Amino acid sequence: MTVLADLHRPGIATHFARVLVQRAVPLGVPEADLLGAVRLNRVLLEEGRVRISPAQLGALMRLVWRELDDELMGFGAGRHRFGTFALMARQMVDSSTLGEALRYSVRFYNLTSPALRWELSEGGVCELALRLTEPERDPDHLLEEFLLLMWHRFCNWLVGERMPLRRTGFAFEPPAHRPEYRLMFPGPVYFSQEVSSIQVDGAWLKAPVIRSRRDLRRFLQRLPDEWFVKQIFADSVSARVLRALADASASLSLEQLADQWHVSSRTLHRQLKREGHSFRRLREQFRRERAESLLLEGNGPIGEVAQSLAMTEPAFSRAFKQWTGMSPLAYRRARGR
Fold first, then answer.
1. 244 inside domain
2. pLDDT greater than 70 at residue 8
3. pLDDT tens-digit profile of 13-54?
4. Is residue 332 in a domain?
5. For the HTH araC/xylS-type domain, which residue ranges apply (predicted)?
6. Would 237 disulfide with which of 48, 161, 174, 271, CB 3.0-4.6 Å?
């Protein structure tokens, strides 16, 4: 899965982890625990060129949720006790359509939360708008960004399809990390708006909710990591490609896979493009995740890691530095601290 990132550098900017740490420490969470969760030291956390994985950011956010007992991570007026989202989501999966689910969620949060004011506008264009009652508590806008990202991704999961964003707006000036938005919020993004919001085609409100409470239990176990990846649904061509790479070899090519599936490579390329992916990026993501796992869990030579990914050691070292901002050896040492 291609992660939320600058399109030319896979991974997530350390900006988001830095903001979380800066907020959580004054609220009583030990800095050593936070850095341990994200597997970074203070120097690497402050290094702008370093990029982290969805699992690293997810582990950090889970720790903050639990330690503060607050799903708003200290950025809102009052707390959302840990488990609030799960309570609301259980009712949403019982809805028959996405529109019914969204109407329930807006009522739920507007009744229970002193921090958030949601508004759902229906019609040819559906807009979900968010206002923070005390925006000064979120000076870096991480909460606004995260909530809009979360709701778009959760709605996609409910209906089992990626809903194209017609427009995303934010009620603040363009931030320094705005290049990250290209995959967070694909489509036109506007700043200095009256309200922060996302818009999709209104026809999506009639889409059936296809998930069950059993599906939701499994989904909740993967949060918040699930919010930080470009979504690939189980029955998609992209998911089949990732499974093929895992079952075969990282050296598998587009042409070889197309031949196995008895389609032309052009057809396979076109199917992936329709889902917003490419074979090259899926293979790159598979290699990165596999490399990180091998480096963290084992002590074998870097050359063996490269060989397992069907790469030469120099090519692997160059690629890994592009993915994370660190050499494979520096990555292993930093995460071992």
1. yes
2. no
3. 899 999 999 999 999 999 999 999 888 888 888 877 778 888
4. no
5. 235-334
6. 271
